UniProtKB/TrEMBL annotation:
Protein name: DJ-1/PfpI family protein
Segments traversing the membrane: none
Pfam families: DJ-1_PfpI (PF01965)
Domain DJ-1/PfpI: 68-229
InterPro entries per the UniProt record, alphabetical: Class_I_gatase-like, DJ-1/PfpI, INH-QAR
UniProt organism field: Nocardia africana
Residue ranges of coiled coil: none
Enzyme class: lyase
Length: 288
């Protein structure tokens, strides 16, 4: 069960236990950053290629913060949607990461991985720096139809410093009324459905529009995590965590995009989303 990773929070913000469990990783991160900060090739970089946001590089990276980060969990959400960003958020020194669900019962994801909440909707801080929503298919559609879940997203999102999602999690943001008039992305097979929520569908790996940060399908959560690190701290901090994770993807097949995948593969995947797309349209139109 993924209850804590890297520097992630424990129930009710038990910072002492968190520091005890992950001091070694933090110390390593701090030392690595001190070395990386002095490398000249870092100072001239400008951030992820398709991210429309200013990425800061400061003289003193890796300063401790006190961010409150709420990551939603719900049954049948996609595990990788959650775990990728959770690794990045967990490496924010001083931050508290809340894994939030309707109850404290373990969450079974769409691949059977069990994730453990650390706070309920009522226990989650009212004001958070980051609200994060993972995606899925049937589980996401069920969450979109659950008034309690949608109200929680709308409430925390109304005050959050950054409102974020990966994959079809953006459809949940849309159901909560948080993307109207914003550029946003989602899984390629459902991206156009964002228009039903008043959003502007955008074909990019990560899209930043004001304080909304949305990622494309599943694996884009890794990219989104590093972008948010750069926004909360600075580019060098994000680069340090990226290097620690050795995140330098070289996929074995060139089928990770509908533009490069074989037509038969694309058609098969599109067929998997037929019922989901119909359900999302009906739900968003009913809410509108």
């Amino acid at each position: 069960m993924l209850q804590e990773s890297c520097c992630a929070a424990t129930p009710r913000g038990n910072c002492s236990r968190k520091a005890e469990m992950f001091a070694g990783r933090r110390d390593f991160l701090m030392s690595a950053s001190a070395l990386l900060a002095g490398l000249p090739w870092l100072s001239g970089q400008t951030g992820a290629g398709d991210v429309s946001a200013d990425v800061r590089v400061v003289d003193e990276p890796l300063l401790d913060g006190n961010e409150q980060i709420a990551m939603l969990l719900y049954p049948q959400c996609t595990a990788l949607d959650f775990v990728g960003p959770q690794y990045a958020f967990g490496c924010l020194s001083g931050a508290t990461v809340h894994q939030v669900a309707a109850t404290m019962d373990p969450i079974i994801t769409d691949t059977g991985v069990i994730l453990t909440p650390t706070a309920t909707f009522d226990q989650c801080p009212r004001d958070v720096d980051v609200l994060f929503i993972p995606g899925g298919t049937n589980g996401t559609l069920t969450a979109m139809r659950d008034d309690t879940t949608v109200r929680f997203i709308a409430d925390r999102g109304a005050r959050a410093r950054w409102v974020t999602s990966v994959c079809t999690g953006s459809l949940l943001l849309g159901a909560a009324g948080l993307l109207h008039g914003y550029r946003a992305t989602s899984h390629w097979a459902a991206r156009d459905l964002l228009a039903e929520a008043g959003a502007i569908p955008t074909d990019s790996r990560v899209v930043v529009d004001r304080n909304r940060v949305t990622g494309a399908g599943v694996s884009a959560g890794l990219d989104l995590g590093y972008v948010i690190l750069s926004l909360l701290r600075d580019q060098r901090y994000a680069e340090t965590v990226q290097l620690m994770a050795e995140y330098a993807p070289r996929p074995p097949f060139d089928a990770g995009s509908p533009d490069t995948a074989p037509p038969t593969t694309r058609t098969m995947v599109e067929g998997m989303f037929t019922e989901f797309r119909t359900g999302v349209k009906d739900t968003l139109r009913a809410e509108r």
